[in-house]
Write a structure and sequence with these properties.
The chain is α/β, with parallel strands linked by helices. It has 2 domains: 5-74 and 146-220, Rossmann fold (3-Layer(aba) Sandwich); 80-143, Alpha-Beta Complex (Hypothetical Protein Ta0175, Chain: A, domain 2), CATH 3.90.1070.10. The protein is built from 8 helices and 12 strands. Strands 5-4-3-2-1-10-11-12 form an 8-stranded mixed sheet, with helices on both faces. The longest helix has 14 residues, at 207-220.
């Protein structure tokens, strides 16, 4: 199969652990003739900036699939009220610090300075429709009905494609649904073990080196151009 597009995570995938951009990924992604979609748990303006810096076409998935942009911006704000209620509930038990509260529209972003697993167990009892996701860079309170896989399906539709037309590249548990929805999933070498389990290819290289490795391998197989 020849894949028609690529969707790639940002933090930990095309960046190093300190969030600086790995230029090996940039070079590889810019070499592609197919569209490249940026997918991130971060807010829309960050996704737009990342797309500009990497040199892709401005098609993005933000807030773990809660927002997609391909010419028009599509928000899924149906669950934000419940996320706010969950935040208030957890705030009675943990000293939580919100991230980008003014700009985040579909979920709650938190700094990683509390016991996430304990909070997850509490949330399961009180808000079973919600989830807490720790990406290694931030913690997200989000609906289980929103994820990067759903975001990929929405962006594919806007692009006139199917999610199975995409190669998906990531490193974190919040990329699992995206890899599962895609036609070919890649976990970079530094990826979480749970992501590696669902990947069709696990690269030797980490971060941007892994992205470049995957791109060159698929080009060699003539499965992408």
């Amino acid at each position: 199969m020849v894949y028609k597009a690529v969707v790639v995570d940002v933090d930990g995938t095309i960046t190093y652990k300190d969030r600086s951009l790995d230029c090996r990924a940039v070079e590889a992604l810019r070499s592609l003739e197919v569209p490249v979609v940026i997918a991130t748990g971060n807010i829309l303006c960050f996704a737009r900036a990342a797309s500009k810096l990497v040199g892709t076409g401005g098609i993005v998935i933000a807030e773990n699939g809660g927002i997609v942009e391909c010419g028009v911006v599509d928000y899924d704000m149906a669950h934000i009220k419940e996320c706010e209620e969950a935040f208030e509930f957890l705030s009675r038990h943990f000293a939580l610090e919100r991230l980008d509260a003014e700009y985040r529209k579909t979920e709650i972003g938190l700094r990683r300075n509390f016991d996430v697993e304990k909070a997850r167990q509490m949330l399961m009892k009180e808000f079973p429709e919600l989830d807490i996701v720790d990406t290694g860079f931030a913690v997200h309170i989000k609906s289980k009905k929103i994820n990067k896989g759903i975001g990929l399906k929405r962006i594919a539709e806007l692009m006139g494609l199917d999610a199975k037309d995409f190669v998906a590249i990531g490193d974190s548990p919040n990329d699992i649904e995206m890899l599962e929805a895609s036609g070919f999933g890649v976990a970079v070498g530094n990826a979480h073990p749970e992501l590696k389990k669902v990947a069709a290819l696990v690269t030797v290289g980490e971060h941007g080196a892994g992205v470049a490795e995957a791109v060159w391998e698929l080009k060699k197989r003539r499965e992408i151009i």
